[in-house]
Amino acid sequence: MTPPPLSKVPWTSVLLLAALGAGTVRAGRRLRAIPVLPVTPPAAAGVPRAAGWRLLTARGVEPDPATFLAACAFAEREGLRVLDLLPADLPAERALGLLRLVDPARYRQDRLAAGRGAGFAVLVTEEVLDRAGVDPGGPRRDPAELLALTRRLKEYAADSTGLAVAPGLRCGAAGEPGGPARAAELRAQGLPPGALAAAQLGGLALLAGVAVRQGRWGAAAAGLYWLQPYLVLGGPGSPLRPAGLGRATAARPVRSLGAGLRTAAAAGRDPAPDRAAEAARAAAYREDLASGTGRFLEPRRTDCPWCGSGRLAVRVRVSDLLQGKPGRFTLERCEDCRHVFQNPRLSPEGLEFYYRDFYDGRGGEGAGTVFGRLGAAYRGRAEMLVPHADPASWLDVGTGHGHFCNAARDVWPLTRFDGLDMGEGVREAERRGWVETGYLGQFPEFASKLAGRYEVVSMYHYLEHTREPLAELDAAATVLAPGGFLAIELPDPQSRMARLLGPFWLPWFQPQHQHLMPAVNLREALADRGFTVVAEEHGPAHQGNDFFGAVALAATRLAPDPDRPWGPGPTPRVRLLGHAVRVAALPCFAAAAVLDTLRTAAARRTDGGNAYRMLARKDTR
Question: Is the whole-model pTM more than 0.85?
Fold first, then answer.
């Protein structure tokens, strides 16, 4: 029998069937990887110790003493400090949602993974609760509050948080969430309920379309979606036994449609903000902007801050595309040494204004989410030292909340990591245990105090933010012991993408980036300070965000956040424009993600990306 030509193959259905099949197999594999607590603590564990543990549960969930003691025994045996307990009757869609988010086989080892759970019961040591500032008393929490708490606690027990099924635990009355509750639970996990509801409804529409129009392949894809809960959770070895699994499976398309519609409606009703705090923030911005933004800029300089040449040319002019704050900024390039710098540059007062609510405050959660997804980059930075050093002490300058230090412990478990930053996040990093000591302030101010104390100093995407990068290098030379290593990663202003994307090239990062120096300039500056460059990487340092970042910046420019406290205030027209731009940008983001994948592969092969890393050893003489 002659096979049909490729043009006749219903590729949409085939791809959907493949994706759903892979998702079903993956969910089943992950489900089997979740450990199950014994009904009673094993005799080999001895008498379980309940002292030092607290079990926080949602309203309506009543764990029995045997479950509590079994959980304590399991956590102590496994070296866990946070253990989320999954009720045996966890509803099917809740279970499938959790399995999409968490790979139990990797969850504990992934120090940067977001804390995830079922939202019904979590066992925590009192020591972790104390460091996290969580009061275990008070009224019972709802599942959304417990989900947010689990997410926070994982930050304080980065490599000692786990999941387990508790056969004796039941969900009680808080099983399936309604639209508002589901939207609240998604927000508590750092997930956008509106976008996820739109994706769910779009997926259902696509499945219905292929089922009607693409024959048996379409029907197979729709059928696999329909039966997925039973295929994953209904087997004889499943540790979860959702109540009414058969009914939930039979009614899945209708229930999913209703859940998507209710969540979408609830997502449009944002939770009430702290009106007083929002009003105070807006008033502070109005006061700052009353005299205009010109006062945030220093006088323009006429020579290059790197080499002193007076041959300067405008490289790019751009507004604040990151937050949409008022102001316009110019980057100039030295025609002799090719150094790129902000001219006129921001004053210290201007830096405070434009950094405010970006890494902390209003934008803190978003920044933390972005940094939490850079695990591969962090590991690459840490592994660059492997052939050259076995450091006992490491100072990460510009550490933020300490994400790099947290991730680098997988490569250097015996190294003491300290962090330094101007933001209060460094104190939070210390409380989490991501750094041993957090220094709050300017690096040059600490140079004499920390002289000769560290074997490694790192500056990852830090130097470009500083007002005087050469002074920062001087400080590093002071702080490092003889033979120590300085690790630096920077955007590469000579990247081809900088020319192609113009003002929408993300690494311009205006107005925060003050200096962008070519690699040859940095090598020369290091040599002048008694360093020898021992390794340099371009392709491996590439950050795969050129096209995606350009789309994001363009969307922000067309439709800034209407609720930003420095803006004119939201109106129905502005909100409608924002929704329209976000919808129109979705296919652009999808295309950008594909282009970035191809661009990253090319950068790795050609050793020419949008950033570079340099490792230099301080001479011993």
Answer: yes
